[in-house]
Amino acid sequence: MNKYNTMVIVGAQWGDEGKGKMTDVFAQTSDVVARFAGGDNAGHVINFNGKKYKVTIVPSGIFNPKTINVIGNGCVVNLENLVSEFEAIKNSGEKIGKLLISDRAHLIFPYHSEIDAAQEDARGEFKIGTTKKGIGPAYQDRVSRMGLRVGDVALPNFKEKLKANVAYQNKFLKAMFNKEPIDFETVYKNTMAAYEKIKSQVIDCGLFLESAIKEGKNVLFEGAQGALLDIDHGTYPFVTSSNCSANNVSLGTGISQRWITNIVGVVKAYCTRVGTGAFPTELKNEIGDQIREVGHEYGSNTGRPRRIGWLDLVALKYAIRISDLDEIFITLLDVLTGFDTLKVCTHYTLNGKELTSVPATNEEYEKCVPVYMDLPGWKEDITQVKSLHELPQNAKNYLEMISKICEVPIAGFSVGPDRKQTVLYENKFNK
Ligand code: GDP
Ligand code: IMO
Ligand code: MG
């Protein structure tokens, strides 16, 4: 057994790998579930007892009434959206856990979303395809030290600070994009009304998590987005604005990295990507369309059709390295049922030379040609499979090949969206 009982779940591709589902599964044996990055650009879908829920900023452990769910300081929080999401969850009739919010998390205001949308329009053909939730502009304010944090709202000078920020951003919106000004009084009123509803849930996240870990509680960290969308290590500039790999757990929650154990990457059995940016294994054909329909690959947040590609082991190995993954968990394996042949990308060629890692620039990445290995598919319905040995041999071979090429153990696999459609070889997290 590990000294500390912590676990990290992160996306190992371009997001939407099934982190919400896996966090919900592991949350059934967690005392605490903490988000450490991103905002309501995330869309995490959870299915149980025939019901389907989506969370964007509330951690995916919320449906275990015994968990305490924490929004870490590394997240950016739109208070109004947080309150309406949490109220909808409270009104769902489900028994739910507690929700706490870091006093150091930065706030997203309506001007951030306006700027996000205006910047996207201005980028024209170079648009990133953001969720327009104001994520980039909010993180930008954090770095430029004009951001306002959850803990600032209670201060006597908050109104003054917010007024100055609204005035500044209105000038920017007018000068750069000829946009109408945002009304300060409305922003202030809505912020205070939302804050009033959650103020008793605001905590010092690092202090809280450190004592939970030291008390031997099961603490699960939930990532958002995926390694290839990481601001530093992802496919820049077609990335999100936070570090969404596992390296950011300690900074994004305020605990020492020495407490972090069991880093599990969630990996879709194929690849998807929403938004712009190079995608070497993309399938712009009927195979891609079939996977999109069978896998319901439409953004849970924005409804956009996801781009589909064969499993890319170069990108996966890169994610394993930058997130230092101990294990990977394969999701949506059922979606690959029915193909005669499955392809997996083992390396790229760039200008005629073999490449085994992800290049730094999008320009080079666009030119990478995937080199595939063919594997025989399987036809049997696997959606009710409960153990590895029940899988068709070719599905087992598919998993084994991933593990072998990536030199990483597989923690289990998922054969459908429901909490129960999960095969976990060993729950190391469950004390
Ligand atoms: P996240 O952002 O990583 O939490 O992933 P999303 O929730 O955005 O997207 C994953 C989608 O796949 C959701 O609709 C899940 O309900 C669904 N899903 C998760 N695991 C499986 C699986 O094993 N099979 C199938 N068919 N769907 C799954
Ligand atoms: P989850 O947690 C997939 C993508 C957007 C865009 C880029 C930047 O559900 O896996 P942003 O709004 O963050 O500035 O957009 O990142 N993106 C995601 N793609 N899943 C997500 O979250 C994403 N969050 C952001 O589509 O390409
Ligand atoms: Mg998602």
Summarize the structure.
This protein has 431 residues and is of the alpha/beta class.
3D structure, described in words:
The chain is an alpha/beta fold and 431 residues long. The chain has two domains: 6-103 and 204-424, Adenylosuccinate Synthetase, subunit A, domain 3 (Adenylosuccinate Synthetase, Chain A, domain 3), CATH 3.90.170; 106-200, Adenylosuccinate Synthetase, subunit A, domain 2 (Orthogonal Bundle). It is 31% helix and 20% strand. The strands form five sheets. Strands 9-7-5-2-10-1-11-15-19-20 form a ten-stranded mixed beta sheet, with helices on both faces. A hairpin with a 2-residue loop joins strand 16 (341-350) and strand 17 (353-355). The longest helix is centred in the middle third of the chain and has 20 residues, at 158-177. The termini are close together. Residues 11, 14-16, 41-44, 128-131, 133, 135-136, 224-226, 229, 238, 240-241, 274-275 line the site of 6-O-phosphoryl inosine monophosphate. Residues 15-16, 42-44, 300 line the site of magnesium ion (MG).
